[in-house]
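Dear Dr. K.,

Following up on our conversation at the group meeting, I've run the structure prediction for Response regulator transcription factor from Streptomyces yunnanensis. I'm pasting the input sequence below exactly as I used it, so you can double-check it against your construct before we proceed with anything downstream. Let me know if the numbering doesn't match what you have in your notebook.
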Amino acid sequence: MAIRVLLVDDQPLLRTGFRMILEAEQDLAVVGEAGDGLQALEQVRALQPDVVLMDIRMPRMDGVEATRQITGPAKDGPAKVLVLTTFDLDEYVVEALRAGASGFLLKDAPAHELVQAIRVVAAGEAMLAPSITRRLLDKYAGHLPSGEESVPNTLHTLTEREVEVLKLVARGLSNAEIAADLFVSETTVKTHVGHVLTKLGLRDRVQAAVYAYESGLVRPGAQ
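The predicted structure tokens came back this morning:
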């Protein structure tokens, strides 16, 4: 079955360009378009897309709030959000990731990257390297807690090894790099990451990295 995509951007010309790219792929189907966050919420409820390609800065309701409502507890469907941004260090991207987006993509990314990103997000994975997440979070450390706040109770559900893995995920290491650092197999690392996501109620590595910063487990700029 084709991956159902909803295009959300306040520039009709960009939406047309994205539609042309995506409709050239047999496994992707553009089911609708929206010009702002409010329209996006209506379209998500009506069309039940798999992936929402979401612009950040739009009138009436921006992409951050729309993402929060689409992926929040009261969500109406399984839609995952892939954020589009003009700048790779846009402060709003951090907020979108915290709101539940599964990743972000630059608007000037090559067509094949856009297509692959949608496929990755639809499969339930995070569509950006942990190192990029870290760079974003380090850049906008002022928007995050200082780390002096009390540790969330959910963090105590993790084993000592799972906490180690979470720290390394947040610091930008891949599964292979974590395996080398901890002297375990990559399969073992994947298992630990899965346990971390399940115990903390997180969707993917992006949210895990954000959680690690927000909880104070990892400090912005720390090595």
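Two things stood out to me. Residues 186-200 form the longest helix (15 residues). The CA atoms of residues 55 and 84 lie 5 Å apart.

Best regards,
J.T.
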